[in-house]
Amino acid sequence: MEKVISCFGRRPEALTRLICFPWAGGGSIHYARWGNVLNSSMEVFAVKLPGRESRAREPFFENMQQIVDEVLAALLPLLREKPFALFGHSFGAFTSFAVAEDLKKLHNLEPVHMFLSGASAPYSEIRVKAPKRSELSDDEFLQWLTSIGGTPQELLANPEVLQLFLPALKADLHVVENYRCSKPDVPFLACPVTCFDGKEDIPHDLQAWRNITSGDFTIRMFDGSHFYLKDAGNEKILLDYITKILETAEIDYL
Question: Domain range holding 14?
């Protein structure tokens, strides 16, 4: 499991696990450190994909099913043990959705809550018609990357660092841009779903996520653009909200 998951502190006594999926090109450390911030009733697992961090020498995945299969192989026994929630931002929203779909359809397991951030639903018209960024030239790609914010300027100005960073980002975008799924005829989940987004980000079809669940559906907007969650103030609000939601879920589960 350690190959696929970063966890800064195992908590066998935790009542709930929060499984976090990285944004495109991202690693696991940003989320793994949440384990040091959230209270002891929660254990944080951050998904670590090939081609970065300790898996830097491994080839990138080429399609969504490869990600889903690896995550489920690593986590399925643990997900049967106790309640869990899923969190994903941007590319991570798609991967968490794909994992949740297979968990429910193949194993009849579902999270106590889905947290989806910074992305339209994968079957929405906005998402299907979105331009394929992974096919841009490096110069065009960097212009787009600069426009959405969230990437440190010192990184964008360093060609050597960019050569390490861009392949993972483009590989992840290739996966999500070629990922296709149909709008659910009926909701396959019954758990609550919360969508987060930055008020200054490009418009996302958040309402379309409502189709995945028969449970409660909530949208919360934050000041900021695509990477609103990197702002310390926003992150505190986000984590406080997640904590409150999951503590309530723990009481209901007990």
Answer: 5-246
Q: Rounded mean pLDDT of 5-31? A: 92
Contact assessment for residue 213 and residue 194, using Cβ atoms and an 8 Å cutoff: no
Question: Across-strand partners of 56?
Answer: none
- Which residues touch 38 (CB under 8 Å, ≥6 apart)? 18, 44, 239, 242, 243
Q: What is the pLDDT of residues 41-92, one digit of tens each?
A: 999 999 999 999 999 999 999 999 999 999 999 999 999 999 999 999 999 9
Q: Which residues are catalytic?
A: 90, 226
Which CATH number characterizes residue 51's domain?
3.40.50.1820
Would you place residue 250 in the very low, low, confident or very high pLDDT band (cuts 50, 70, 90)?
low
**How does DSSP assign 62-75, residue by residue?**
-SHHHHHHHHHHHH
Nearest residue to 18 (alpha-carbon basis) of 62, 82, 98, 63: 82
SS3 (DSSP) at 167: helix
99 φ/ψ angles, rounded to the nearest 5 degrees? -65, -45
Short-list 35, 38, 64, 33, CA closest to 49: 64
Is 106 a member of any domain?
Answer: yes
86 neighbors 80 (Cβ within 8 angstroms): no
Q: How confident is the model at residue 108 (pLDDT cuts 50, 70, 90)?
A: very high
